[in-house]
Amino acid sequence: MREQTGGVVDTARAERAMHEFLTALGIDLRSCGMRETPARAAEMYAELFAGLRSDTAVLWAETMTEDTAGLVAVRDIPFYSMCEHHLLPFFGTVDIVYRPQSGRVAGFGVFTQLAALYAARPQLQERLTAQIADEIVRGLGAAGVLVVVRAQQLCMMMRGERAHGTRTVTAEYRGAFRSDAAETAAAWKMLGVHE
């Protein structure tokens, strides 16, 4: 099933809601620096959640078939997302390893766009990792996929536990990397992890 996309952004409504939200928290929006904050915040969140209005199908429009059977890795793709629990940022890197099926590959930039698209929505790191892996299988037909996401979660650093410097790591396996130990080891080796 294709990822569902959201509707049109009602910026005026979002601005009114942000105004009400900030006022409810006791913030004086009449002060010089705060007058335009509701509008700026509404525009910012529309940009941060633009992935809700995007379709992944366009990413796979120009795949290529090459005479290759080896693994392909794209490492250290930067991403920024918003935790859906507290609407605070989490950010880090995505590593992707895949084994092409019948030589079908995509340009490396597709993977950075894919990570950015799924990160641009209210997210959980675990879901982000799984969505990227599933999309590579669906869109590229890869025989095996390993996706590793390393992130810092500001909700852990700014509130609650205040666990400064903590990094979270999630991994998802698909296809051959889920069922074949040698394939899995080879994928991890591409990422610089040796057993």
Which characteristics define this entry?
195 residues, 24% strand, 37% helix, 5-stranded mixed sheet, alpha+beta, two-stranded antiparallel ribbon, 7 strands, GTP Cyclohydrolase I, domain 2, single chain
How are the secondary structure elements laid out?
Layout: H1 11-24, H2 37-48, E1 64-65, E2 72-83, E3 89-99, E4 104-105, H3 108-119, E5 122-123, H4 125-140, E6 144-153, H5 154-158, E7 168-175, H6 176-179, H7 181-190
Parallel strand pairs: 2-5
Antiparallel strand pairs: 1-4, 2-3, 3-6, 6-7
Describe, in plain words, how this protein is organized in 3D.
- The structure is a single chain.
- By secondary structure, the chain is of the alpha+beta class.
- The chain folds into two domains: 11-48, no CATH class; 55-190, GTP Cyclohydrolase I, domain 2 (2-Layer Sandwich).
- The protein has helices at residues 11-24, 37-48, 108-119, 125-140, 154-158, 176-179, 181-190; strands at 64-65, 72-83, 89-99, 104-105, 122-123, 144-153, 168-175.
- The protein has a five-stranded mixed sheet with strand order 5-2-3-6-7.
- The radius of gyration is 20 Å and the shape is elongated.
- It starts with 10 loop residues before the first helix and ends in a 5-residue tail after the last helix.
- The model has no long low-confidence stretch (mean pLDDT 92).
